[in-house]
Structures are given as structure tokens and as C-alpha cells.
Amino acid sequence: MKQIIVVLVLSFIIVSFCVPCFAEEYKEETQKKISRGLANVLSAFGEIPKSIAEESEDTKLPVYEIIDGIFRGAGKTVVRFISGVYDLVVSPIPNIKTFPPDPETLGSTQK
Questions:
Q1: Where are the domains of the chain?
Q2: Is 23 in a helix, a strand, or coil?
Q3: What's the pTM?
């Protein structure tokens, strides 16, 4: 019985030293998910004008550019908005893999 108590106490001490290490990582991961989620939810509707501008660079037909840009932007808006809501919902849950849209936020240019 004494050995079990000693093992439990030693295990508790070892685990208690590891918890602060994981707390900092958890905090950073949670903050990243919340900020990316908010950015994606708030900027999701910016995909429509961005897509119209991108399409206007590719073709010479103005009507086609606007219509195509609206539909592509609407699709990207839905993806970005759902991704943002998902990030906000799972932000307090550790070790949940997120799938941010490409690029992660509307204004970022890195791929």
C-alpha cells in the first residue's frame, strides 16, 4: 500500500511540473484559432469584390467577369465563413485540427 501511495505521489509531482508547459501552448493555439476565426467571419463577404477584381484581370468580357466573380466569390465566402465559425467553436478544445481556407485570412498573401 505504501508503494502505491509513493508511486501516485511521484506521478502527481511529475505531471504537475508538465502542466505549465502545455498551458502556454494551449493558450497560443486558442488565441490563434480565435483570431483567425474572427478574421474569417468578419471578412468573408470581402471575397466577392476580391473575386470580381481577380476575374477582371483574366478576361476581356465585363459582363462575364462580374457574373463569374460574383459566383466564385459567393462560394469562397461560404467556405471562409464556415471555416471561421468552425475555428471559433473549436477554439477552446485542444488538439482539434483545423482546416483554414487558402490563404488563412482574406488579407494574407502567403500560401
A1: 41-93
A2: helix
A3: 0.69
